[in-house]
Specification:
By secondary structure, the chain is an alpha+beta fold. The chain contains 10 helices and 8 strands. The strands form 2 sheets. It has a 5-stranded antiparallel beta sheet with strand order 1-2-3-5-4, with helices on both faces. Strands 6-7-8 form a 3-stranded antiparallel beta sheet. The protein is globular.
């Protein structure tokens, strides 16, 4: 086996971690290098994404991704999230409603295309303080998708569904060379549509990353915990909160998470119907990749 073939085989193995669980996710988190090489011959990024973002076992998730792709094609581009140390984006559908948070692989905290340069500066100028040595760089998107699979397998219900998805959008962070190449190809296609229309792909390159469904009416744990200190929860809700929090602890133990802070998990406390229907207030916890969320809590 040649060096190139061996390297390709190793890359395929690394990017195709299939989980064999009864009734659980059996689809690789990310297609291997050979699949990506075959798809590079396709002339349209939208066609490429359609083939890559294919989830036959989950039509509801597929429809959300299709809606996001359609919105991007019609100019409703993802919006960058100002908080956090990586490039992460609110993904919308045609109406402008946020449906997911997308975190591209090459815009993770220490990745080359991260639009927030503070982590890059930290790595270059102060390598002794560079993150946590036990973590691999630029595989966070796989960890986030994997956490969703583990959550689903153990029926914990605290991680919004997260999958590996390929997207391309003008608002993502691309190099000047990539943008210039896309612009040049688009001009050529416009001038020679019959000759070059099917041969040149003017779209910006697809980016692979984690695509986590957006959750509404949740608030940051730091905010809600302060409110609970000021206004203690009833005993029945306290018990509910303890059970939800224990699920979070169990999940973090299983996936060996060492980065759980009050900025990356949310709490939803629904008391709207209490009294009218004589119901116990509903309290829920969600573990999220985004470090911000639009909430219905004031």
């Amino acid at each position: 086996m040649s060096c190139d073939e061996r390297s390709s085989a190793e890359e395929d193995q690394w990017h195709s971690p299939t989980l064999h669980m009864d009734g659980a996710e059996n689809r690789p988190l990310l297609e291997g290098a050979s699949s990506r090489r075959r798809l590079r011959t396709i002339s349209s990024s939208s066609a490429e994404a359609t083939l890559m973002n294919y989830y036959p076992e989950d039509p509801d998730f597929s429809s959300i991704v299709r809606a996001a792709e359609a919105a991007i094609e019609n100019g409703v581009n993802p919006q960058i999230i100002s908080q956090g140390s990586s490039g992460s984006y609110f993904v919308k559908k045609m109406s402008g409603e946020i449906v997911a948070v997308f975190k591209p692989r090459n815009e993770e905290p220490y990745a080359i295309m991260n639009p927030k340069w503070t982590k890059w500066l930290q790595k270059k100028c102060c390598p002794c303080c560079f993150g946590r040595g036990c973590l691999l760089s630029n595989v966070g998107y796989l960890s986030e998708a994997g956490a969703s699979i583990v959550d689903s397998h153990f029926e914990l219900g605290i991680v919004p569904k997260t999958r590996v998805v390929w997207l391309s959008a003008e608002t993502f962070h691309y190099s000047a060379l990539e943008r210039a190449e896309s612009k040049t190809k688009r001009q050529l296609v416009n001038h020679f549509p019959e000759k070059l229309g099917k041969r040149l792909n003017p779209d910006l390159p697809l980016k692979v990353g984690s695509f986590q469904l957006f959750v509404n009416s949740y608030a940051a744990a730091s905010l809600m915990l302060r409110k609970f200190e000021e206004n203690p929860l009833p005993d029945t809700v306290n018990e509910q909160f303890q059970k939800e929090f224990e699920k979070l602890v169990v999940l973090d133990y299983i996936i060996r998470n060492t980065d759980r802070g009050t900025d990356n998990w949310l709490i939803k406390y629904d008391i709207a119907d209490v009294g009218a229907l004589n119901e116990v207030p509903n309290l829920m916890i969600a573990i999220v990749t985004q470090r911000t969320a639009k909430t219905g809590v004031s």
